[in-house]
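Lab notes, practical 5.
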Amino acid sequence: MINMINVEAIHIAPVKSLALASPRSVYAGTAGIVEDRRFYLIDARGALLTQRQAGKLAQVRADYQPGLESLRLSFPDSTVIEGPVETGEPLVTQIWGRQVTGHQARGDWNKVLSKFCGQQVTLVKPRQPGECFDEFPLSILSSASVEMLGQRPEVGFALDHRRFRPNLLLSGCQPHQEDAWLGGSVRIGEELILRVAAPDPRCAITTLDPDTGEPDFDAPSAIRAYRPSSRAAYFGVYAVVERPGTVSVGDVVIGPDG
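Output from the prediction step:
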């Protein structure tokens, strides 16, 4: 009997590296999910700023309305800043070996973010949607893979899948079944078709509590303990969009293995 595979959860971060939002339905175009990673942050040197350098960014929640070009940031002390994002002069940021052109935000965004982080922080909007993803527009992970990692003797506790920040979390898979889809196409719901492009190398962000941003578990080492690799701790897969479409929680997923 073949298990039915479904979309268990959808996650996006309208501002790269801030807390995950979990909508029930999204539209994925060729640049990825429309509301995902539409902004990023840089530090005083102009370098990309993520939870690797400032874990407490995990405590800031973002909501983005693309039709209105409106952003809302909610901070743990109940501070909220929201409104249309007006942008100024262009700048260029190195993101995973790419030169990304963006425009820094005008207004109070930078002042509030800088105060929260205790350092100079600038909100930037890329010139084109989807330019500030890591390597590929979408990430996929099965809940079975997360459960298997938690059951390993060197771990021994249930892991929150949000630690791995998947765009699409799938239920009904065998552990690491998503790895078998590399190079193949996956249909999700009635419209969306993704091509599974590469394994997902895990970084230091997976060592952080997804709610607080505090380091609490060495996930990459735990992954390597049973999935040895000289290159990276691979866990889950990256995908690109072959045919755009809407994806919703509960949608059926049909992989290249049927």
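Observations recorded by the TA: DSSP finds three helices and 18 strands in the chain. The longest strand covers residues 192-202.
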